[in-house]
Q: What sequence folds into this?
């Protein structure tokens, strides 16, 4: 196994890039040969400068499988300056992974709670408060007791951010598909304004701000530039699609360049 490179040289205030490797697993699962390797893909992305790896294991194992979750946790132990983020619905299989990894001394740095159903095609909405508060509160508390940071997948609704903080979350991940869908249309500016307002509300509530879903090389820089306090973006589908043409290293570097283009001197980490 290739040894980790030196700690990332990104500026302290830069938005971090976490690469979602689900789609690598999706291709692998079409055969029984073990290729492409999910752990090798993650390693190449880390070598290229990605600050984290994300997976979203679903109960039907359509892409990431249970063994991948543990193999990646083992890999991430050799990259102590990078972060492992596991996404999913805490009412399904997610909590079992967190508990088992914590018991093995390999808890992820972050868990992202996503309110998707077992047969949902892809994540398409965030949590809603006060409706989801009571069931989330004890699960958030359990993760934090295990030493795992909690981020909640949220629509860009400013009024919801204080409630997300009230259940104990450390961060929110803003669901960015509406922004991506509006890119290049007359609605683009209005959508960006919604995300600016939601991010500022989150910051005002004491939360850190992540974002993800359909971000790509076209729309990423503008989002980083306009959304205050953007701590991390999680990108999978577009990044892995680009990697099929450009390779993992060049693709990660291209996304990091988009982030650098969007970063402003006063942006918070």
A:
């Amino acid at each position: 196994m290739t040894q980790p490179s030196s700690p990332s040289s990104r500026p302290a205030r830069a938005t971090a890039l976490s690469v979602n490797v689900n789609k690598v697993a999706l291709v692998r699962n079409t055969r029984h040969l073990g290729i492409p390797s999910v752990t090798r893909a993650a390693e190449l992305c880390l070598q290229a400068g990605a600050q984290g790896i994300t997976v979203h294991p679903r109960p039907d194992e359509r892409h990431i499988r249970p063994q991948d979750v543990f193999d990646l946790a083992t890999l991430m132990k050799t990259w102590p300056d990078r972060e492992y983020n596991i996404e999913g619905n805490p009412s399904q299989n997610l909590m079992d992974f967190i508990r088992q990894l914590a018991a093995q001394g390999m808890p992820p740095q972050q868990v992202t709670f996503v309110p998707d159903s077992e047969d949902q095609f892809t994540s398409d909405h965030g949590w809603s408060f006060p409706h989801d508060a009571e069931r989330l509160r004890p699960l958030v508390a359990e993760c934090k007791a295990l030493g795992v940071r909690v981020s909640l997948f949220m629509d860009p609704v400013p009024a919801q951010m204080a409630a997300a903080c009230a259940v104990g979350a450390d961060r929110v991940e803003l669901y960015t598909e509406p922004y991506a869908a509006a890119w290049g249309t007359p609605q683009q500016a209005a959508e960006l304004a919604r995300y600016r307002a939601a991010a500022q509300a989150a910051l005002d509530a004491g939360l850190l701000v992540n974002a993800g879903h359909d971000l790509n090389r076209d729309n990423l820089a503008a989002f980083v530039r306009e959304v205050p306090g953007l701590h991390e973006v999680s990108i999978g589908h577009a990044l892995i699609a680009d990697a099929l043409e450009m390779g993992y290293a060049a693709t990660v570097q291209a996304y990091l360049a988009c982030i650098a283009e969007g970063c402003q001197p006063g942006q918070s980490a």
